[in-house]
Design a protein that fits this description.
The protein has 9 helices and 7 strands; from the N terminus they run H-H-H-H-E-E-E-H-E-H-E-H-E-E-H-H. The protein is an alpha+beta fold and 267 residues long.
């Protein structure tokens, strides 16, 4: 009897094994016969695609950022040499700033149809040296005449206290002390917004500043992080501006015709 039960058990196991094999065969066959998934020519390998996009973005950045006036250590030194030549103080705090305003050593920059301010710029810091304001007025009028748009002043005079605070948030900002300190501290520098200008407008600004830079009347930089034209203005600009105005006023008028050319000749 036990021998019969054992044989039945073996037969049952064999049937179940055969049944499992039959049921699994289609799945096994499907896995074996499915063709490999083709790679689309429009979807390259993820690694290659990422590298390609990175290179493309790098090329675009290099193409867009091609300034005529690159920021440099040497430029900062020249700006501070000018401040030292003029014997101007680096303004320490608001108290000293207000004293310079009261004495009119610093004058207000005024909004006009050709000039506006970044609304975030504190009105108490919309001041600069008189010759710097002359430069700003001349530039804004010339720019408006060319493009019928305003220039925007993003920054003007700063104090050492403000510069130190700025450095905590922007490590690319110039130091508050030393031979490469920010020239904003002396009130001779303005930042003019570059972001939003067309290529034509940027080139116009560069060509406007270039001869002034060559005459050592200004020291410009095109800052990438802030996207501004940072322009330090020498006091020599005032003398150059005055001589240019006088030369225009002294343009000789056409000479009056001689009397014999006007009066009829006597018979």
């Amino acid at each position: 009897m036990s021998h019969f039960v054992k044989r039945n058990h073996i037969a049952t196991v064999a049937v179940f094994a055969l049944l499992a094999l039959v049921l699994c065969e289609p799945a096994l066959g499907l896995h074996a016969t499915l063709p490999p998934r083709p790679r689309s020519s429009r979807a390259p390998h993820p690694l290659v695609s990422t590298r390609s996009r990175t290179k493309t973005r790098a090329r675009v950045r290099r193409a867009r950022w091609n300034p005529m006036f690159r920021p440099s250590h040497e430029s900062l030194l020249r700006q501070n040499e000018e401040i030292d030549r003029l014997e101007l103080p680096r303004i320490q705090d608001d108290e000293q700033l207000e004293q310079l305003k009261a004495s009119e050593a610093l004058v207000p920059i005024l909004e006009s149809p050709s000039l506006r301010f970044d609304p975030r710029l504190d009105p108490s810091r919309r001041y600069c040296r008189p010759w710097t304001r002359d430069f700003v007025d001349d530039l804004s009028e010339a720019y408006y005449k060319q493009f019928h748009q305003q220039i925007q002043i993003n920054s003007a005079v700063r104090t050492v206290k403000i510069q130190k605070k700025l450095r905590r948030h922007n490590r690319n900002a110039a130091p508050a002390e030393g031979d490469t300190a920010s020239s904003h501290l002396a009130g001779i520098t303005v930042d003019i917004q570059r972001r939003g200008m067309t290529r034509e407008q940027i080139q116009w600004m560069q060509q406007y500043l270039l001869p002034l830079r060559d005459m050592q009347l200004v020291e410009p930089e095109e800052e990438r992080r802030q996207w501004v034209f940072h322009v330090m203005v020498s006091d020599r600009y005032a003398g150059w501006r005055e001589s240019k105005t006088l030369a225009t006023q002294k343009t000789p008028e056409p000479e009056a015709p001689a009397l014999e050319e006007v009066l009829p000749q006597q018979q």
